[in-house]
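Customer escalation, tier 2.

The customer says the design service returned an amino acid string that "doesn't look like it belongs to this structure." They asked us to rerun it and document both sides in this ticket. The original structure tokens are below, unchanged.
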């Protein structure tokens, strides 16, 4: 969410009515999240000036660990230097820390491609935004789950009940520090997650939603502490209990 919001912001800066805007003091402390959107807190160090040049050798974009040769345009300006400076700063201050973690395994190669392409400045801001929007579409639609075996049939569903949330085993990256609360596309994906965790014996898909509209599922190591809840369904591994006991 943070990275996508940042890319949308940089896309606007690259195509602003004032021209391409560069953030000269690009640091994480210069940004805040407001209603799920990243915003710049200080525009004092923003500039629309692009480096003047006479030849391509005048257009090297230097960072502490990397340098990038750029082209000198016919009007004597280094082409895209403001956009590329913003994008590489986004890569080194945000993408490298946030993108490699917590995504579903099927989407990690796509995020790795974005990370590598922005780190080498092979992508401009337009390509970067398209790549992020593709990942978001796959994530929200559940298309990344295709061609997987169906596992929900291995679970018994109990309508009108839920398990006690929190205080059970913990997992990463959980939305709750008290237990294992993860984003899922459906109960079928939750069944895959439960099967992949040795402690998991049951789960409930909660009414809580993430910023993408995906529900949160709570995973438990037992199913004995059930609470009546007309809006809930608890899923229990068939191997954890026989039908007679239920």
């Amino acid at each position: 969410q943070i990275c996508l919001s940042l890319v949308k912001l940089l896309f606007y800066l690259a195509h602003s009515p004032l021209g391409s805007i560069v953030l000269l003091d690009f640091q994480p402390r210069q940004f805040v999240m407001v209603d799920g959107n990243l915003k710049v807190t200080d525009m004092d160090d923003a500039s629309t000036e692009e480096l003047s040049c006479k030849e391509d050798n005048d257009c090297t974009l230097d960072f502490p660990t990397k340098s990038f040769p750029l082209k000198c345009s016919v009007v004597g300006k280094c082409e895209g230097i403001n956009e590329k400076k913003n994008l590489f700063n986004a890569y080194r201050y945000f993408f490298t820390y946030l993108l490699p973690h917590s995504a579903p395994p099927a989407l990690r190669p796509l995020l790795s491609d974005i990370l590598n392409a922005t780190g080498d400045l092979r992508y401009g801001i337009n390509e970067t935004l398209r790549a992020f929007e593709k990942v978001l579409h796959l994530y929200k639609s559940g298309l990344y789950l295709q061609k997987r075996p169906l596992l929900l049939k291995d679970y018994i569903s109990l309508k009108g009940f839920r398990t006690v949330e929190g205080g059970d085993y913990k997992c990463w990256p959980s939305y709750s520090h008290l237990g294992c609360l993860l984003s899922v596309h459906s109960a079928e994906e939750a069944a895959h997650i439960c099967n992949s965790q040795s402690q998991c014996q049951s789960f409930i898909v909660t009414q809580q939603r993430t910023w993408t509209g995906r529900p949160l599922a709570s995973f438990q190591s037992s199913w004995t502490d059930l609470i009546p809840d007309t809006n809930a369904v608890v899923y229990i591994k068939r191997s954890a209990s026989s039908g007679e006991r239920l």
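Tier 2 assessment: The sequence is consistent with the input. The chain is about 30% helix and 25% strand. Residues 152-242 form a domain with the Hepatocyte Growth Factor fold (CATH 3.50.4.10). Sent an explanation to the customer and offered a walkthrough call.
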